[in-house]
Every structure is written in C-alpha cells, then in structure tokens.
C-alpha cells in the first residue's frame, strides 16, 4: 500500500478575517498519509485558523485545500469525515460516554451491534472500558480527554485534527497523555494534524513539525532537525533554549565564517549569511558549549560566572561571555564538575559547526 | 470501632460538637438579624394579608354569629317539615337583636346569596316584628309572608349554620349545593366561570407557545452575535421593561384598533377592504398580541442565559462528527437549552395565567381572563370572599403546574439566569 505524499495539501492558502490583515499568508503544506504533523507557534500565528480551514469551520480567502486529492473548500464540515478533538474536549454534556461515542456512528446509520463493537474498541484503545454509562461531568479532565480522543476515532476517519487537546491538563497528566496519543497514532496509522503552542509536546509527539509565525510556516521538518538545525532565528529562539550573539560577518570561506563580536572574532557555521559585512545573529544551544574544553574545539573563550542555579540533575550556569551576560550553560550533575563557583573565570568552548549564523532579526 | 464512636474532645475537654455550636452561634445570630427586617416585612405585608384573604374565602361565620340561637335550636330539626315553635322563637329573638343593632340588612344580603327572595321578606319581617305579640312566633312569622311558611327558605337558613363553607369555590366552578345537599352544576346558560377558566388556560398556553417561538431565535442571536451587536439587541429586548405596562398596552390599542395604524397599513397595501377592516382588538387577538409582546422578555432572558453557557465548539463537534447542521442542532444544542425553555415557559405561563391589565384594556368581552373576573368581584360586587376563593383556585392551579413541571423536567434543571 503506497502512502500518499500529499494526503492533505494546502495550496497557496490565504486567510483574512477582516479584509485588511492576512492571518495566513500563502500557505504551502503537504502532509503525508499516516503522518503526525504538528502545527506549532505562538498564539496569533495562524495555526488554529489553518486547522479550522481544514475542518471546514473557516473558508480560505484564497487558494485551495485538498484532502486525498479532492478539493474540499466547498464541502461542508459534516461531509468531510474528519475527526476532531477540541481544545475543551467539547463532549456533549447531556449524553453518556456511550452516547457521545455513538453519535458519529448513529448519524452514519451504522447498525447497533456493529456500532457497539466499534465503541468497545475505541474505549479500550484509551483504556476506559467500563466508563460507557458515565456522564462527562463525572469524569476527570484526563478521562474526558480520552473520551474526546476515542470519539474522534470511533468512526474510523482517515484524518484526525487535534486543537491543543492537552492544554487544560496538569503537567504530569499532559506528559502521559502525549505518549498515549502517540501510541494510538502508531497503532492505528491514522493521519494526525495537531496544533499546540507547547514546543516540548510538539517535539515528543510529531513526525514533522510546522513552525508557524506571523501567518507563515517558518520551518517544516522533523523534531531533531528543527532543534538542531533551525533555519532562522525565530525558529532557533522558539524551539528550546538558545544562546545568541549579534555581530557582523568579517570573513566567509570554506564553509565557515568569522563573525566579529565585541572586538573578538568567533567562528560560526554560515546558514543564512552570504557575504562580508552582513549583520547576523549566532545561535548556539546551551548543551553544545562545554566547560574546560579540549583543544580540538575551534572556539575557546573565557567568561565570568554570574549565577549558578541548581536543578537537581543539572546545574544552569549564567556566564558573561563576550559582552553577553545571558549566556547559559547546562552542566550535568557529575562529580567531574565541582569547580563551578560564583565569580570565577572559566574557559568555554564549542565547535563552529554548532554555532549557526542566522538572519539578524 | 470504639475509637470511632467515642466522643471527640477539644484540648479544653469540651465535646467538639458543643464547642463547634458555640463558635457558630454568634455567626448564626448575626445572619438571622441581617435577614430579620426583610422577614418581618414579608410576614406583615405578604403572609398576613394573603392568609387573611384566603381565610375569607372559606369563612362563613357572619351568619353563624348573627343567628346563634336559631342554629342552636335547629340542631335537632331534620329539615323535612317546617321547624317547630322553638326555632321560630329563637329566630325571633336573634332577629330582634339584629334589628336593634341595625344589622338585619347584612343578614338579608347574606341569606340572599344562598337563596333569592330573602331580601324582601326580611324587610317585611322587620316592619311587622315591631307589632309582634309575645308567644306563638311561628304563626306570627309565617303570616308575614308566605315564603316564611315555605320550608325551603328555612332549609336555606340552616345551610348557613356551619362556620366554614366551600360554597365560594363551588361557585367558582359554576357549581352549587342544591336543596338536597348535593353538588350540582348550574344551568348551561348561566355558566360563566368555567368558560373563563378554560379561556385563561388557553390564552396562557398559546401566549407561552408564541413567546417561545419568537424568543428562541432572538436568544440564540443574542448569545452568538459579537458583543457590539448583541448589546444593542439586548437593549431592544429590555426596552419594554423601561416603559410602563400601561403605556405599552395603550400603544397596542393605537396600533390595533379598527382605524389604527396596522389596519390602515393593511388597507393601504390592499390586503383588506376599507369597509371591512378586521377587528384586532377587544377580542382574543388583542390579548394574544399584546400579552405575547409584553411577556416576551421573560422568555428571552432565561433562554439567553442558558444559551450563553453553551460552548460553540459543541455545535462544531456535532458537525465534525458527521451530523448535518440540523442534527447537530436537534441532538446537541436543543437538549442543552431545555433548562432555559423550562424556565421561560414556566415563567411566561404563570405570569400569563394571572394577567390583568392588558386583557382588561385590549381583551374586550371575549379576551378577558379569570383575573379580570376576580378584580370585578373585588371592586364592583364587593364579594371579597368569592374573589379570594378564585384567587386561591388560581394559585393552586399554578402550584399544580409547578408540581407537574417538577415531575416532568425537574425543578433543579431550571435556570433563570
């Protein structure tokens, strides 16, 4: 069975609510069949609007959305056959869990015994057997969440949309639900489009992540690539922790560039800089910089420890380095690193490969 | 087990419950004192007057107290033949006392309620009684008028002996206790109250239905429109509340009368002929139109407050799960609005069933309700006991409806705001 590369396709989609501001700009996005794609971005970045257009509750101002090769802009939501999990679950409060799950089957006129089998299967998938006769109000937040997931899957849709489904749960429950949803996705192979503003949620769950900002997809790639190889400074700063240096390119050659910061040159990896004299922002992950580095590293500078914060498994160290006093280091809590004291000068090194010279914005 | 049943003591050795009560007592007294003025006000202005009015509806002591000796003497009378001298003598004694107090007129009015024809013979008895001789009162009284020799009139007097009566309630249902003491309906052409009760129920029912049909879309619009428009619409809904009820009703009179604006408009667009203008006022139509408009906000507000709490994502969920917009509305949205519908319908129905001013002004003869009849007896015939009897019947009717509603929907499900 060949999986379609463009099972869901956004083709040059624009969306504006008031005719003045574009909320979504020229969106071009292909989603593969069976994939788990997350739309990640700050609030107001247009990600939920995209989801609503896909579900059919908003119409694109321009462009077209294709589902399995068919243009769907003129198909009303109830005929699209897309499962959806809403932010506040949207369980029908006057129906039992069973009736909630039976709703999509009943409107499709599926015979009762077959429907009962499907409901059983869906409930066992979210491990809620025996809860069928409860009312949603009698369930905890996490259980309601599972019911919402089961309901969106019970009628075997090809595509399931999830709109910040874990936003209302506490941290521990959220994490366990992340794994649960991920496993359900792996087991049944349904295509999932997931919207969240929580980057760790996106990183743990997705096959691919589309980072939204200002109505545009900034980067669409796998979680590891997104984290390790951000293509612009927005993505670098939005995903994970990040140390930045702002400077000017003084030399560029052989896949490396020299950037002048506070009268010192550092070596960096030129991603979006082309020539000498350009302004740039260098992004370096805290865990890629080491204390007391070996000599092989091509960037070694010294700085003063300004703050030490104990985190149990690691220690965060804030250092004043090359005029940037917000430089963060993560030091693993091992016996080798006991010499970290406030006010001490230490040597810090990193590979020029990991220091990505991005756009200056 | 023993530790569970053992009394828990505070560190000072006082039982915990006693200590708790002591600590709470001050707050309880404070709370009671805060509500005491209102409680007193309610008792004085609400419980007492209404209780008194209700008592009046069954109170029949007046005649009992006017003729105490007569009724005592009548206790042994079987009511078949004319009573014997003893009763007549007692009646004479009571009557002379009433004449001295100038209260015989009241007696005649009261007895006349029971049986027509008492008024004139009591007047005559008063005149003649001045020249009565002592002894043999039976002969003397019977000679005053032939009705005094009619056993039916004496039976009528005996019927007034009990201190309490259900007669006013029976009258409210167009029934009475006949000569044999059976409860029967009055003749067909004299039944007025049953028609009124049925009409009251009918008008209240249809006004509720019309209000519901109109209020539901308005409330839905109010709950879903953006704030800026919904506020304006809310003002339009509430505007009638800021206008006097009389003014609103009078406006309907201007609009609905035969030479009124609505009729002029119909003639203008050629819907009706100028010489055949429909009567839209002084009949049921007038009551329907005006009452529906006036009671509409009472339906809109509870519906709105319920609809406001229904998340729009529920309808979306219904649609995304494959329900057509109608199915999503009918299976998801509508059931969730039932508490509001219940509250609105109950409110409007109860208000409509006791409505007074509007039907009195625009209802005419065929559009008046039971409350107009109550007012009529309060103001014109001064038969307050009958008026309060009908008032109590109306109240119990409303309570029955409330009880039914509680059985069917459950009063806990109601939401007024």
Notes on the protein architecture:
- The complex is a heterodimer of chains A (361) and B (417).
- Chain A has 361 residues and is α+β, with helices and mostly antiparallel strands.
- Chain A has helices spanning 47-55, 97-107, 112-125, 141-153, 171-188, 199-205, 223-228, 233-238; strands spanning 8-16, 22-31, 36-40, 62-67, 70-71, 82-85, 159-163, 191-196, 208-213, 216-221, 243-253, 256-261, 264-270, 279-284, 290-291, 299-310, 314-321, 324-332, 345-350, 356-358.
- In chain A, the strands form four sheets. A six-stranded mixed β-sheet of chain A has the order 6-7-8-3-9-10, sandwiched between helices. Chain A has a five-stranded mixed β-barrel with strand order 11-12-13-20-14. A five-stranded antiparallel β-sheet of chain A has the order 15-19-16-17-18, with no helix packed on it.
- The two termini of chain A are 45 Å apart.
- The mean pLDDT of chain A is 86.
- With 417 residues, chain B is mostly helical.
- In chain B, strand 1 (175-177) and strand 2 (183-185) form a beta hairpin.
- The radius of gyration of chain B is 31 Å and the shape is flat.
- Chain B has 20 helices and two strands.
- The mean pLDDT of chain B is 86.
- In chain B, 28% of the residues are buried.
- In chain B, strands 1-2 form a two-stranded antiparallel sheet.
- In chain B, 70% of the residues lie in helices and 1% in strands.
- In chain B, helix 15 (284-308) packs across helix 17 (325-353).
